[in-house]
């Protein structure tokens, strides 16, 4: 499977967060990797949500700027949007995609790995759906 978007990578990590404990021994996953997958999923979700919020706030500020510049003098300028304190849930590290690909290659090489496990971990098959 090719993870060519951050959303596809997040979907795979969420599946692994949910299902890797079940298949941990079959694929040779370590306890540290279970933690890594959970933290990587949390950080990617945070970054996706933060980027969307900042983009929406940017659009609001652009409208305010335009209102200040040449808006109707009889209309109040709306308040600025609230920007959150930027605080990711876990320490940010670079290369989530590469680390995930390395783990996945190792899992696929495990003696007990099969297509069913690959599907459950979002490694094989179509783009995994984002779990609820």
Walkthrough of the structure:
The chain has 132 residues and is mainly alpha-helical. 62% of the residues lie in helices and 0% in strands. It has four helices and no strands. Helix 1 packs antiparallel against helix 2 (31-70) and helix 1 (6-27) packs parallel to helix 3 (96-109). The longest helix is centred in the middle third of the chain and has 40 residues, at 31-70. It is elongated, with a radius of gyration of 21 Å. The two termini are 21 Å apart. The relative contact order is 0.23.
Inertia-based shape? elongated
Indicate the percent of residues in helices. Answer: 55-70%
The low-confidence parts are none
Largest β-sheet summary: none
What distinguishing features does this structure have?
132 residues, mainly alpha, elongated
In short:
62% of the residues lie in helices and 0% in strands. It contains 4 helices and no strands.
What layout of secondary structure does this protein have?
Layout: H1 6-27, H2 31-70, H3 96-109, H4 115-120
């Amino acid at each position: 499977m090719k993870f060519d978007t951050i959303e596809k990578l997040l979907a795979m990590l969420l599946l692994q967060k949910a299902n890797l404990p079940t298949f941990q021994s079959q694929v040779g996953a370590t306890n540290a990797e279970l933690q890594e997958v959970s933290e990587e999923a949390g950080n990617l979700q945070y970054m996706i949500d933060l980027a969307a919020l900042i983009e929406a706030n940017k659009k609001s500020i652009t409208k305010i700027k335009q209102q200040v510049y040449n808006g109707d003098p009889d209309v109040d300028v709306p308040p600025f949007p609230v920007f959150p304190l930027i605080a990711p849930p876990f320490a940010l590290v670079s290369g989530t995609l590469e680390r995930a690909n390395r783990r996945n290659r190792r899992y696929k090489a495990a003696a007990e790995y099969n297509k069913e496990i690959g599907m459950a971990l979002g490694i094989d098959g179509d783009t995994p759906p984002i779990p609820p």
